[in-house]
Design brief:
Blueprint lengths: L6 H7 L3 E4 L6 E4 L5 E4 L5 E4 L1 H10 L4 E7 L1 H8 L4 E5 L2 E5 L2 E4 L20 H12 L6 H8 L3 H11 L3 E4 L2 E4 L2 H11 L6 E6 L4 H14 L5 E3 H8 L8 E4 L12 E2 L7 E5 L9 H4 L13 H10 L5 H13 L3
Parallel strand pairs: 4-5, 5-6, 13-15
Antiparallel strand pairs: 1-2, 2-3, 6-7, 7-8, 9-10, 11-14, 11-15, 12-13
Helix pairs in contact: 4-6, 4-7, 5-6, 9-11, 11-12
Length: 328
Amino acid sequence: MLVVVDVATVLRELDLSVTGGSTEDAWLLRAADGSRFEVSPAPPVKRLDARHVNNTLAHRSAALLVGESATPGTIARAEAGDIDILTARPIRLIHAGHIYEAATPEEPAHSPRSMPRGRPAWIRWALERYLLLAMEPARQPAIAGELGTNQQAVSRAVRRLGDFAVDSRKGVFARDRRALLEHWIDEYPGPGGQEFGWYGLADVRDQARTACAVATSLELEPRVGGDVAADAIAPWKLPTNARIYVREPVDLAGDGFVHAPLEEATLVTCVPRDPTIWRLTSMSQAVSAPDGLPLADPLIVLWDLLASTDLDSDAAAQKLADAIVGER
C-alpha cells in the first residue's frame, strides 16, 4: 500500500523550520524556542510498530521513523528517548524524549496579518479560494479532490462558512463573491513559514524565471506570487520584487543572486506553512503567465499585495480583487 506522508508539511504544522543538514539525507530543524537539532527521516510507513522500528534501526541507527500513526509501545519508546518518531495522525514529533505536537483546533478572531493560535483552518480558507475561483457550482467530492482532502472535511468547512456559501443540488457556490472575498481577507493569516532574501541585478521577472528554473530542477514545485504574478494576472504596477513559494529551502547563490536581508531583497523565496499553496492547480492554470511561469493562485497573489509595503500595492490589490470577483 502506498503511504503518503509529506514530512516537510507535517514538520511545518509543528512550527519547526526546515533547512539542509550536514549530510545529503539530513534535515536541520529549528523549534520556536530556538533549539536546533538534526534528523534523517526514514521512508514513511502506514503504522510504526516494533517490527518496523527494529528492522529500520538495524540499518539506520539514528533515523527519524516516520508513519501515519504509531503503536502505543512505539510511542512509549519514543517518550523514553530510545527512538525518534514523526506521525501524521496525530501530527506529532518525539525527538530525544521531547514531544512536539500541533495545537488543538481553535479559531479565535485575529488580525489578517497574524498567524492564529491553534491549528490554522487551512482547508476552510482553501475552500474559500476555491469558491472565489470557481466558474460554476461544484460538488463536494470534486472540491475535496482539488483541495487534497476528504468530503467530510469539505462538508465541515462549508458549514463553517454559513451564509457565505450555498450548498445546492447543483453544488457549492459563493452566495456573494465580494462578501466572501472580504471575509477571506479578514481571516486568512497568510501562508506563514520561512522566508529567505536574495538580491539580484536582473529584471525581477527574469529573477523569477531563474529562481523557478533552479527550484524546478530540484523538484521543489515553485509557485510565483507577489508583483510578478500580479502583473501577469491583472497588470497595474511595475514589478519591483519577486516572490517564489517552494517546497523546501533553495540555494540561489551562484545563479545571479546573493543573500540579502528581507527588506533589501529583490527576490524572496518562501517555504510556506500553508500546505494548500500547491492545491487549486488546475484552476490556477487558467491564469498561467504568458511565458510559462507557474503562478500561485490569484488569492495568494492578492494576499502578497495586501502584505506589501509598496505605495502602489493597494491599488494593484484592488485591481486584482476586482478581477477575482468580476465576471469571468
